[in-house]
UniProtKB/TrEMBL annotation:
This is ABC transporter permease. Keywords: Cell membrane, Membrane, Transmembrane, Transmembrane helix. Pfam families: BPD_transp_2. It is found in: Cell membrane.
Length: 407
């Protein structure tokens, strides 16, 4: 299928099913039930699942294949967002020009940063990328370039957004005043009510999902290409490759630029869902988040970054909403004293303390599943295969006992 091997085709089908059926998979509980708190099928969160999945896939191409750990990838995410918003301000709300410019500008900055940073490896490379990202964050937050040229470029801490006074040369009264795809609003949503369940089908999410599927397919082709094999060799022993006379710099720089383009595309999609860009998207914490996504899902695997991105964004948005009122409703069947004790016990792990829960889960994954969630899934699959194998052996032995002549 599409030039892929059987295993890769299966992974692609899994991602397609997860993306297309997300409104159903993420809303397993009835809308009015106590467990509805854990439903994650609303448009804004589903969009974030897809967008950060793209971001993590791109980061995994660099880190998973070459072993080069970048602490500054959020810079390209922010650059992509700023580029898309500028297209909205200058041309109009059609998202295609904004996404194209996001990828191009991010590739340009990735080329410059990668050319300098890749002169070093290991921790020195990581610190260089972090330094560049923090410099870009400081420039964006203070709008240093805007002050120099005399017009706002990033609009500082307020953030860049679209105003009615902006040129928007290709905008007309017949087109929506929000981001759209050739007239189709990105925020348009169709809600399907089935009994006590409610499912939202958002156009913006499905657009992001299709982009995610396309970027995942491209990542598979890169992984399985001779270029991908060369990157794996760099990760295995770059020094030995240099001794053979092979220059690895063009390969590592190429994948760094590709990874930056993925991040820029994700940033452009973020601006396309919400036409506002701020410097907070370029902070070092955002770069650390994509590192966690990749390691948690499984660095160097294909589907791992997608799972890791969904896992972290789920905790960030679902567990952060659980407050004391919700906890009291959960434990209301208990006597008052025990109810208050349980609320006090659980309180540090939810709401503003969701990072603590995520940290504990991350520690458990690193300790018991160094290969991430993908390794966990493989272990579960292997367990079931062993059980099936034992049952097949038992059936074969029973058949031989019933018919010894069959031997």
């Amino acid at each position: 299928m599409l030039g892929l091997k059987k295993h890769d085709t299966q992974l692609l089908i899994i991602v397609i099913c997860l993306a297309l059926f997300a409104p159903f998979l993420l809303n397993p509980f009835p809308a009015g039930s106590a467990m509805a708190q854990f439903n994650a099928g609303y448009p804004d969160l589903m969009q974030r699942f897809a967008i950060f999945g793209i971001f993590a896939i791109g980061f995994n191409l660099l880190f998973g294949l070459t072993g080069y750990l970048s602490f500054g990838h959020a810079a390209f995410l922010g650059i992509g967002s700023y580029s898309a918003v500028w297209m909205f301000k200058l041309l109009g709300y059609n998202i295609i020009p904004g996404m194209i410019l996001s990828v191009i500008v991010s590739a340009f900055f990735a080329l410059l940063i990668g050319y300098i940073s890749l002169r070093r490896s290991g921790i020195y490379f990581s610190i260089l990328t972090l330094a560049f990202a923090q410099m870009l964050f400081a420039i964006a937050y203070s709008d240093l370039i805007g002050r120099f040229v005399g017009t706002p470029i990033t609009n500082g801490e307020t953030g860049l957004q679209v105003y009615t006074s902006d040129p928007q040369f290709f905008h007309s009264a017949a087109k929506p005043d929000i981001p759209h795809l050739f007239g189709q609003k990105m925020q348009s949503t169709y809600t399907l009510d089935v009994g006590a369940w409610s499912f939202d089908f958002n156009f913006g999410y499905y657009f992001c999902a299709l982009v995610l599927i396309g970027m995942f397919y491209l990542a598979i082709r890169i992984f399985r290409s001779p270029f991908g094999l060369m990157l794996r060799a760099v990760k295995s022993n770059q020094q030995r490759m240099n001794y053979t006379g092979l220059n690895t710099k063009p390969y590592t720089l190429a994948v760094f630029v590709i990874s930056g383009m993925y991040a820029g595309l994700a940033g452009g999609l973020m601006a396309s869902m919400d036409p506002l860009s701020g410097a907070e998207r370029m902070q070092w914490t955002a770069s650390g988040e994509v590192v966690l996504m990749t390691i948690l899902g499984g660095a160097g695997t294909l589907i791992g970054p997608v799972l890791g991105a969904g896992f972290i964004k789920y905790f960030e948005n679902i567990f952060a909403k659980i407050n004391d009122n919700v906890l009291h409703s959960w434990f209301s069947f208990l006597p008052d004293g025990i109810e208050n004790f349980m609320v006090t016990l659980v309180h540090p792990f939810v709401g503003k303390g969701w990072h603590l829960t995520l940290g504990l889960l991350f520690m458990m994954v690193v300790i018991f599943l160094p290969g991430g969630l993908v390794q966990g899934a493989e272990k579960i699959g292997a367990t079931f295969r062993r059980k099936d194998g034992k049952s097949d052996d038992a059936e074969a032995k029973a058949a031989k006992q019933r018919n010894p002549a069959a031997e």
